[in-house]
Amino acid sequence: MNSKNSSTNLITPGGFLFSTKEAAIKKPGRKDILLIYSQHEAIISGMFTKNKVKAAPVKLDMQRIRTGKGQAIIVNSGNANACTGMQGMRDALEMTTLVARGLNLAEDKVYVCSTGVIGTPMPMERIRIKIPELVEGLGKSTPYDATAAIMTTDTFPKVVTRRIKIGSKTGTLLGICKGAGMVCPHMATMLCFIMTDLKIGKIALDKAMKDAVKNSFNRITIDGDMSTNDTVLIMANGMAENEPIRKDTASFKRFSSALSDMTYELGRLIVKDGEGATKLVEIVVRNARNERDAYKAAFTIANSPLVKTALYGNDVNWGRIMAALGSSGITIKETKIDIYFGKVKVVKSGISHQKDMEAANIIREKELTITVDLHLGTSSSRILTCDLTEDYIRINAEYRT
Amino acid sequence: MNSKNSSTNLITPGGFLFSTKEAAIKKPGRKDILLIYSQHEAIISGMFTKNKVKAAPVKLDMQRIRTGKGQAIIVNSGNANACTGMQGMRDALEMTTLVARGLNLAEDKVYVCSTGVIGTPMPMERIRIKIPELVEGLGKSTPYDATAAIMTTDTFPKVVTRRIKIGSKTGTLLGICKGAGMVCPHMATMLCFIMTDLKIGKIALDKAMKDAVKNSFNRITIDGDMSTNDTVLIMANGMAENEPIRKDTASFKRFSSALSDMTYELGRLIVKDGEGATKLVEIVVRNARNERDAYKAAFTIANSPLVKTALYGNDVNWGRIMAALGSSGITIKETKIDIYFGKVKVVKSGISHQKDMEAANIIREKELTITVDLHLGTSSSRILTCDLTEDYIRINAEYRT
């Protein structure tokens, strides 16, 4: 497996099965549909794109998630089924109907996600016939196979697991996701599926999920664009037979923390694999007047094409960071600003600290942190971003062709 | 003159002289300082960057412009004199002091503008000695020479003139500017100097200028970044000896319209010459609920890296326009949206109109208009943008080196 984060012995949570097939949705040559199935009905929680143009599968899932229950997810890559009108809605529905029929489930227990090109009708003639095969193949694919099937311009599959003990029982969390481009908060163009065999109440699951997304997928950016299809779904099937996790308990804290940790790691992998990216950069803004200011400043810096191209060019061009900061709309006092590349202070009190040469060694690293200290308050925020490269342009100028 | 908009017989407004010299500010080999001088004291009006991090010359000019009078502008390229602290302020001041001394002017009649790298002290030892030469050379440089001296990554000088008749007198407007990158509203990274020999009152000049900038430089974008140095200055020296133009008169309307027209043309040239740009694209959003929505939607589309890379790749990827629209935060109704490339309707009522092949001929053109019709109201807005190319990355990854 050509993966930057493969681990050979993945632990899969109890009762979850995967199946992947090739439906040649965009073009032939790779598996592009995935079925995730839980042998027991699961509690399900989800978060969806804030884009007002939502893909058909997103609209459908947003309705179904109100039941709080789920047992299967069908996912395709190569076509987003967005801006496809009534036919798109019928296609999304049909995909879930066929899965429900094959698995003998109530239709509203089946969810559907799509990623790929916007505005092209789904090639249902090729998808339809593959669904019985998908059902048939359950259990024959690994989580890596699952992730590979939902990749678009991703260059490696993103899989993260965590094990936690709740009482005398040990449960597993498995998260898989795809990202790559059109990645920005609320959320990345990303699909993320998290499966756990832990038993947890719906309210607790919703809360843990919301916190996890806030501190991970809403803190990453690749190009500032927001997708029509972003979806995060978590299914908890209870097969670990632990005492159910309730909100505001010690076991909830452990679960929530493991989930946040996992989604942060998944978010990190998404940015690391950003389209054309050569480096992963954490932007930290600290001592802002309030959290909103810190977040806004960090995002403006993280999204600035000039900052991102300077990162690519290994140019300690902190002037562009100052310019982005000044344009972010937040309160600043120029003469109080310090900027660090790693631990090297390049700006002291708003002007050069004559350390650009030292910082040049930091900026060449594959992962680095840039810290902006505003010295105005006590609030902090951090955002993960990547550099902007010629490959980003090439990938996106040629995406549809 | 290797210029896309050169005209051999430029009419210069009466009483304005130019001088350019080489001070080797960033590197030797080109003229990089400019002096603009009006033989008569002029009424002056200015607009400056909204960035909270302002270059020293911007801070100085913002103080001086309160007098409403001016007679000379010294400009340098290669160094922005931004984030340079107290020394930067002293350097900006010294530049005006030396010009004032050479021209025997009150110091507060002299303005200073800088463009280039942020955070590096001004090489005053090289600039200082060139100022007497600049003064000496007045009248020996053309408006094209003037523009060439303030270029950074611009590939051609941007000069526009207009002649208008006020009563029995004919006056001239001459505008020169530089742009290229870090261009976004409020305003582009741009310096723009407009000179006219028309006689006009300060209140009228301010009003005409504000309207002109609103409809030109605040409606262009290259990369969404906002500079620390943006400045637009207009000097009117009255040497045409016309009846003074007052606000709310017919001659004001003519003046204002000529000025707006000129700044729009200059803005167009800036975007056309955007860093790495291969095409100029006008984004029109019409029938929005209100002007704010129209403007916001047009800007979100115009700034989307995915839209801009698709334009570069000649890919009629209207799905990315829909996605940008949906993420702009304005009110939309997906099923009411129509999108046109030129006159070809590619989206009808939110879904494909099956005209991508026809639109492919439009997108290959060097200049095109994309129109989004929201069918929700009567407000419109238009923004000029360009495509995002590998050359943008190359230019900006290597800018300082």
Instruction: Give the total of beta strands of chain A.
Output: 14
Low-confidence stretches of chain A: 1-8, 182-188
- Taken in chain order, the helices and strands of chain A follow as EEHEHEHHHEEEHEHEHHHEEEHEEH
Summarize model confidence as the mean pLDDT of chain A: 91
Given helix and strand content, the structural type of chain A is alpha+beta
What is the H level of CATH, i.e. the homologous superfamily of the largest domain in chain A? L-amino peptidase D-ALA esterase/amidase
Q: Output the CATH class name of the largest domain in chain A.
A: Alpha Beta
Shape of chain A: globular
Oligomer: homodimer
By DSSP (H or I, 4+ residues per run), the number of helices of chain A equals 12
Largest sheet of chain A: 8 strands, mixed
- Report the β-strand fraction of chain A as a percent range: 25-35%
| CATH topology annotation of the largest domain in chain A | L-amino peptidase D-ALA esterase/amidase
Largest interface: A-B, 64 and 64 residues
Explain how this protein is built.
- Two copies of one chain form a homodimer.
- Chain A has 401 residues and is an alpha+beta fold.
- Chain A has two domains: 16-272, 4-Layer Sandwich (L-amino peptidase D-ALA esterase/amidase); 280-397, Roll (Ubiquitin-like (UB roll)).
- Chain A is built from twelve helices and 14 strands.
- Chain A has helices at 56-64, 85-103, 124-128, 131-136, 143-149, 202-214, 250-272, 291-303, 305-312, 318-327, 356-363, 390-397; strands spanning 16-21, 33-48, 69-79, 110-117, 158-166, 169-178, 191-196, 231-236, 280-288, 338-341, 344-348, 351-352, 367-373, 379-386.
- In chain A, the strands form two sheets. In chain A, strands 1, 2, 3, 4, 5, 6, 7 and 8 form an eight-stranded mixed beta sheet that branches.
- The longest helix of chain A has 23 residues, at 250-272.
- Chain A is globular and about 70 Å long.
- Chain A starts with 15 loop residues before the first strand and ends with a helix.
- The model of chain A is unreliable at 1-8 and 182-188 (pLDDT under 50).
- At the A-B interface, α9, α10, β12 and α12 of A face α9, α10, β12 and α12 of B.
